[in-house]
Design brief:
By secondary structure, the protein is an alpha+beta fold. The protein is 30% helix and 30% strand. The chain contains five helices and six strands, in the order αααββββααββ. The protein has a six-stranded antiparallel beta barrel with strand order 1-2-5-4-3-6. A hairpin with a 6-residue loop joins β3 (104-108) and β4. The relative contact order is 0.19.
Amino acid sequence: MERQREEEQKKTVFRERALRLYQQNRQKIVLLRLVQPRFFLFLWAILGGLALLAGLAWSARVPVTQSGVGLVLERGEALPGRSQYIVLSLLPPDSAGQLKPDQRVVVRYDNSRSALLARIDTVEPNVLSPDAIRSRFALTGALAELVREPAAVAVARVEAETGGLSTAAYSGRSFRIDVEIASRRVLNLMPGFRSW
C-alpha cells in the first residue's frame, strides 16, 4: 500500500496536505464584501422612509371644493350659541346633488387671510332661477342684482371668523366661497393612482 501511495505521489506534483487544504477551502462558503454594513443601514433607512411616505399618502385626505358666490346676510336675532349671520351659497347648477347639510363653507374676504367659516344648515332641493332666489330670500338692491343665473342654493350658518375682521364687515356683501363637497386621498392626486 505504501508503494501505491508513493507511486501516486510521484504522479502528482502536489503534496497531499496541500490538496486537502485546497479541497477544504473550496467547500467553504465565501461571501464577497462588496459594500460596507453602514451602507446597508442607509438603504434600509431610505426604504423605511419611502414606506412611511406611502402610508401617509394613502391615509391623508384633502378636501375637494366647489367654488361659488356667497352672500352674507344678517337674519334676525341670534339663537343662543348660534350666529345671526348666514351665508347664502350660490353654486353652479351641476353641484346640486353634491350639497349636503353640515358641509363646511369658507367665505374669503378679497385676497386677505380673513375668512368666515360656516356650516350648511339647509339645501334647496332643486336648482332655483334668479327670480326664485330673489323672492325666496328677500334680496333687494345690489345683492338682488348679483343673482343673474340659476344656481344650486344652500344656506349656511356662520360659525367662526379668522383674520381679525368681524362678521359685520362681511354683512350685505358678496364673496367668493369654497364648499367642501368631498375629500380624496392624496395618493389619488398622482398620475396612475386616480382609480384607487
